[in-house]
Structure prediction request, 71 residues.
Amino acid sequence: MSKLNQISASQELTISGLLLILKRRRATILLTTLICFLLGVGACIFMTRRYEATGEIQVLKQSPAALGLSG
Prediction:
């Protein structure tokens, strides 16, 4: 059996133990995060655009009387 399988009930996992594990695995975590980020950026750059949006504003010229203003 490996040491991971031999953890007894007296060896509880604490927050400080978790932080120590994260500190030891920091390089692996950062490298994995960087690779995933770069793959995502690359996918966004090289994917073809599927949709294009256009907007249109229509301006109507109205007299001040139509707005209820008396002059």
Notes: The helical segments are 15-24, 26-46. DSSP finds two helices and no strands in the chain. Residues 20 and 26 are 10 Å apart (CA to CA). The two ends are 95 Å apart (CA to CA).
